[in-house]
Specification:
The chain has about 475 residues and is of the alpha+beta class. The chain folds into three domains: about 180 residues, Four Helix Bundle (Hemerythrin (Met), subunit A), CATH 1.20.120; about 90 residues, Helix Hairpins (Orthogonal Bundle); about 150 residues, Heat Shock Protein 90. The chain is about 70% helix and about 10% strand. It has nine helices and seven strands. Strands 2-4-5-7-6 form a five-stranded mixed beta sheet, covered by helices on one side. Helix 1 runs antiparallel to helix 2 and helix 8 packs antiparallel against helix 9. It starts with a helix and ends with a strand. The relative contact order is 0.06.
């Protein structure tokens, strides 16, 4: 069933339930009000009846026939009151009791009329008056007490029913909540986990799709997307591997060709002009061969460091120490290059898991790049800071050099990519990138031409 239909049915059920409770409450309230109105009328009738009994006693004690006329007047007033409130009385006590009330009043009035019409006091008629009066009194008393009890019972039963409804609603809400959690929130959490795994490069799928609603359709679409992304990702990865291989090959060829050509030319000249060369010249040519071989060795060493980084052998340590050590090693270079250093060390940084020498090498590589980017001098800002909200420490290195163009910036960590021409191998930042990644950290670069470049290194704090 679609979620939309589930929601509609749920709303219909809730509305029907609320309407049913509303009708029940309104019915009981109306009934209570009707019975309360009858009790009020009954109190008035009872007061009037007490006055009739007083008139009755006056007759028996003093033989006052006017008292009998007062009884008739009171009964007529009661009849008018009953007639005006007959709807409320009828609803409260029913047709039978209303008819019985009228019969008792009629008999009482007739008994009073018979005594008044008879000029001589008749014990039988007087007994009949007393009997009908007593019956009317007992009826008023019984029916009033009964209606009061009925009102109390209705209120008590309504309270009990409302309490049970409250408990039922709570249980229903808990059941609906569990249903929503299992049928809707559960699949949504699975979708969230799938999305997070896709973001991390894990293109798995959600198995056992049991939902036939919109959530099931979304899961199916995500599974298809995950499979397609995995396929496309494999293709992109293969393309990147081929592209990296091409860059690597081109870089190696470029870096090796020049020194090999120089060695070849020196060897040819050495063989051709050997007899005419002086001892000093021969030594000079061999020194040049050694220099070119050293260039080849540095390229190969850098390539090996890039392709097969050494084991990290990481230990807990303070990143501030590595920064300070790197600055001390580079201080002479900074002074000679007329680079003004601004060092800001955050005190009491938490420890990080690191290989001290490798992290120090990263800082030295970045400082060297900064010096080379400021041939006429400039400023280098190095600061360490803590990121407690992400449990990490950061090192930010910013120079005021010539910067990196937007076209070159995405390739700054590519192997053999360099903006220094023949003065660089293009492996320093690639090796630095590999070191930071082996420390499970992040390194970012931001740059603007003629403004400067900023490298930000982030490492997670150490937890025992």
């Amino acid at each position: 069933m679609k979620i939309k239909n589930k929601i509609i049915i749920s709303h219909i059920f809730n509305v029907a339930f609320i309407v049913m409770i509303g009708f029940f409450s309104i019915h009981n309230i109306d009934l209570v009000l009707a019975k309360l109105r009858f009790v009020e009328i009954a109190d008035d009738l009872n007061a009037s009846f007490l006055e009739m009994r007083i008139s009755e006693k006056n007759y028996f004690l003093y033989g006052d026939n006017a008292a009998l006329a007062e009884i008739n007047e009171k009964i007529k007033g009661n009849e008018e009151l009953i007639e005006s409130a007959s709807a409320d009385i009828l609803r409260a006590i029913g047709q039978d009791k209303l008819a019985q009330l009228r019969i008792y009043q009629k008999k009482y009035a007739e008994a009073a009329d018979r005594i008044r019409e008879n000029k001589v006091r008749n014990p039988r008629l007087e007994l009949d008056l007393r009997t009908n009066g007593q019956k009317l009194r007992d009826f008023f008393k019984d029916i009033t007490q009964f209606e009061r009890r009925t009102v109390s019972n209705i209120i008590r039963s309504s309270k009990e029913i409302l309490y049970m409804v409250f408990v039922f609603v709570l249980l229903l809400a808990a059941g609906v909540g569990r249903f929503v959690s299992e049928k809707i929130l559960g699949p949504l959490r699975a979708i969230e986990r799938l999305a997070m795994s896709i973001a991390k490069g894990d293109f798995r799928k959600i198995e056992d799709i049991s939902s036939n609603d919109e959530v099931g359709s979304v899961i199916e679409a995500l599974n298809l997307m995950s499979g397609e992304l995995k396929h496309r990702g494999d293709e992109i990865m293969q393309s990147k591997k081929l592209a990296s291989l091409g860059i690597l090959t081109a870089g190696v060829a470029h870096e090796m060709t020049n020194p090999l050509n120089n060695i070849s030319m020196i060897a040819q000249n050495f063989a051709e002009y050997y007899r005419s060369l002086s001892q000093e010249k021969r030594i000079e040519m061999m020194d040049r061969v050694a220099e070119e071989a050293q260039r080849i060795e540095e390229v190969v060493k850098g390539l090996l460091d890039f392709s097969k980084p050494k084991e990290a052998n990481m230990k807990p340590g303070n990143i501030n120490d590595a920064v300070v050590k790197a600055v001390k090693l580079m201080q002479n270079t900074l002074d000679i290059s007329n680079v003004e250093l601004h060092l800001s060390i955050y005190p009491s940084l938490p420890a990080v898991l690191l290989n001290f020498n490798q992290i120090q090498q990263v800082f030295i590589n970045i400082i060297v790049n900064a010096v080379q980017a400021m041939p006429s001098g400039g400023k280098l800002f190095i600061e360490t800071l803590q990121e407690p909200e992400v449990e990490a420490v950061k090192v930010r290195l910013r120079d005021t050099g010539k910067g990196i163009s937007a076209e070159c910036l995405p390739h700054i960590f590519d192997p053999f990519f360099t903006t220094k021409g023949v003065d660089g191998t293009g492996l320093g930042m690639s090796v630095s990138y590999g070191i930071i990644k082996s420390h499970h950290g992040n390194i970012r670069v931001e740059s603007q031409p003629d403004v400067g470049t900023t490298f930000t290194i982030e490492l997670s704090t150490y937890k025992e």
